[in-house]
Amino acid sequence: MRPRAPLDTETSLFADELRRAGHVVHTPDLFDGRTFETIDEGVGYAEQVGFGDLIDRGAQAVAGLPGDLIYAGFSLGVLPAQKLAQTRSGARGALL
């Protein structure tokens, strides 16, 4: 996920490519529907809510999913993706 979350065009296009290849793709919104015009604005929001909170939101987003996933994250989305790939039982890998 990138700072222009909830889901910018590039991330959506990448997710769609993976779906066309037969993969199941989940794209949670870790930014509560907010969008930002610049990376600095997105980082400012992340600092305001706390990077730990964004990581927790990622964990909550996958709580009901099987553990044997590959986690992907773009920009600030790398934070929860990396944490989940390193700590969630059954994780198969990460794309960061």
From TrEMBL:
The lineage of its organism: Bacteria, Bacillati, Actinomycetota, Actinomycetes, Micrococcales. It comes from the Bacteria. InterPro entries: AB_hydrolase_fold. It comes from Cryobacterium flavum. SUPFAM superfamilies: alpha/beta-Hydrolases (SSF53474). This is Dienelactone hydrolase.
